[in-house]
Design brief:
Length: 599
């Protein structure tokens, strides 16, 4: 259904007139989101949120959502990877949780209402990919005492701690399996020296309310939490150890915004520190219809956290976005009118597009100039047009692609058109035009031409079968329509006899000595949970060396894992061979690979 009563419809009204570039907070506009929990993994930020239902008059929440970004401003919507239905024993309250990565897997700790007891309990779900899908790890609560808001921290010695609580604050020491714990839940003393002094409530003498977020930095342990309901602000305490003793340090974010709750998440990423929170800034927003936002900050010289204010501008962009590799349509900095939904080809697509709707993608680096634009589209009606515009939704039109009717909302085809005047770095606006009603869906887009960083690979999308690809070592390479990350095909390799065997492509004539290259690839296992990586074999002057293009990451059978990395490539003498290939750290499991790019 179209969220006509929700933030989208109101956003359409407020942004109906074409505008120039605007603020980037809140970072999700298609739905209401709350309780942010960021995770840095493999060069990206994965953001896990709750979902406030439209028109809520209570914390009516049935699912959790996943978003990711490499630049803090363009966020990819990965849909819902976890919901109440995941836990057969739960019946309500998909509230604030957190995901941690360990043992090559991802563990999502969430509070839900236990159907049998009617009380709140902490469950844990597990996945092989940061985007899921997640499955109930236990079939029962991990721990239950009627309290909420779990956060997990893994210390340098490998010991993991689960903290949670409202009105009290608890912890347990998790075992290495991350789904069991040793000992009994221990209550952390809530003293005024440790958590500040609250006035006016004899039952709650300290400022601690809920939503703890525990982490370590420079040998100091931080507990950032929602303080003094209601309305809440964000405070924090520090300690010399993971269980205390805690000392209250003051306010991180004062009471601001139109939500009477707040919820913190703190990370470091690419040399910067970032604070995630929620407010009620979207149209129709409030205490039960919240939206996630982010700010960049810098610690004081003594390790204390400065006061951080909510802004509409949000965090600055880290780097730029490459338009010459396939980009998911649901990757956006801002939008007007559109929604997202599961795509029949896998992943998520942008849908419910009407005349005048648009998507903004920030900081797109076109280099010396793009010459073409392609998009994957579907329409059960007569389609419409995609207008490629620069720097504003009413900016200059660089090109227009006609979208035909395809016979169904999930019947996909690829359309292309020429573009001109697209050089340098710009904000990209895809503005949609056509008749009345819903026009078409978009799954992905990509620009062609230009020398600003195009994909060096032939058939990196795998849509042309095995064209351009060979096997490094032994194994059988074939095109597969059984699974695909995008489009309709991936590459399958079976019969590997060594861990270094995998799909490969010759880049000898395409590399420049001394240049850095960014590599992305989506990989999925056909059996087992191997760690996969991208490697470049260079032979120059009779010597072969190996460049790690991406770090190794665990891949599973239940979903796609993104490999991502940047590496400097150089050699001495004459380059006689350069081969990019996918391998595993160990084992010979069969693999699927899709959407590989090096630029």
């Amino acid at each position: 259904m179209r969220w006509l009563a929700g933030p989208l419809a109101l956003l359409c009204v407020l942004t109906a007139a074409p505008t120039t570039a605007r603020a980037d907070n809140p970072i999700v506009q298609t739905i209401y989101t709350a309780d942010p929990a960021p995770l840095v993994y493999n060069g990206r930020i994965y953001l896990y949120t709750g979902h406030d239902e439209d028109g809520s008059t209570y914390f009516t929440m049935k699912q959790w959502r996943v978003y990711s970004s490499a630049d803090l401003v363009n966020w990819t919507d990965h849909g819902s990877a976890l919901s109440l239905t995941t836990f057969a024993w739960a019946d309500a309250n998909a509230w604030a949780g957190q995901v941690v990565a360990r043992n090559g897997r991802f563990y999502w700790y969430v509070p839900v209402r236990n159907r049998a007891t009617g009380g709140m309990a902490i469950g844990v779900a597990v996945a092989d990919s940061p985007t899921g899908p997640f499955a109930d790890a236990l079939g029962r609560p991990l721990v239950e005492n009627g309290e909420i808001d779990p956060t997990v921290f893994v210390d340098d010695d490998g010991q993991a701690y689960l903290y949670w609580g409202n009105p009290r604050l608890w912890y347990v020491r998790l075992n290495a399996d991350m789904t069991s714990f040793s000992g009994s839940p221990t209550q952390i003393p809530l003293t005024t020296s440790g958590f500040g002094t609250r006035t006016g409530d004899a039952n709650r003498p300290t400022l601690y309310e809920e939503g703890p977020w525990v982490y370590k930095r420079g040998g100091l342990y931080y507990n950032v939490f929602a303080a003094k309901c209601c309305s809440e602000f964000i405070g924090y305490s520090t300690a010399p150890g993971p269980t205390g003793p805690w000392t209250y340090r003051g306010t991180v974010m004062p009471t601001q915004g139109s939500s009477f709750t707040n919820h913190p998440g703190v990370i470091d990423f690419n040399g910067g520190s970032y604070f995630f929170y929620h407010n009620g800034a979207l149209p129709g927003g409030g205490g039960y219809t919240r939206s996630v936002a982010v700010e960049r900050f810098a610690y004081n010289g003594d390790g204390t956290i400065p006061a951080i204010n909510m802004t509409a501008a949000g965090a600055p962009q880290v780097g730029t976005l490459n338009p010459y590799v396939r980009q998911e349509a649901e990757t956006m900095a801002w939008e007007s009118g559109v929604e997202t939904e599961p795509a029949g080809e896998g992943g998520v697509n942008v849908g419910w597009i009407e005349n005048g709707d648009w998507i903004k993608v920030k900081g797109v680096a076109f280099g010396t100039g793009a010459t073409s634009f392609s998009a994957r589209v579907a329409s059960a009606t007569s389609g419409g047009r995609i207008e490629v515009r620069l720097d504003a939704s009413n900016g200059p039109v660089a090109g227009t692609c006609t979208v035909p009717g395809t016979g169904g909302w999930q019947t996909w085809t690829t359309v292309s058109c020429g573009v001109s005047g697209v050089t340098g770095t710009h904000d990209l606006y895809l503005r949609f035009a056509g008749g009345t009603g819903t026009l078409f869906n978009v799954n992905w887009w990509q620009f062609g031409g230009g020398s600003g960083g195009g994909n060096l690979l032939t058939n990196g999308t795998m849509e042309n079968g095995t064209t351009g690809w060979t096997t490094f070592g032994s194994g059988t390479l074939s095109a597969s329509t059984a699974v695909a990350h995008g489009g309709s095909r991936s590459l399958s390799i079976t019969g590997r006899t060594a861990s270094w065997n995998g799909p490969a492509q010759d880049l000898t004539a395409k590399l420049s000595n001394g240049r850095s290259y960014a590599t992305t690839a989506w990989v999925r296992s056909q059996s087992g949970n191997p760690s996969a990586k991208m490697t470049l074999a260079l032979t120059a002057g009779g010597t072969t060396s190996y460049v790690a293009l991406t770090p190794a990451a665990s891949v599973g059978t239940g979903g796609w894992t993104l490999l991502f990395g940047t590496a400097a490539v150089s050699w001495t003498g004459t380059l006689s061979a350069a081969t990019l290939y996918v391998e595993t750290a160990a084992g010979t499991d069969g693999l699927y690979v899709d959407d590989i790019a090096i630029q």
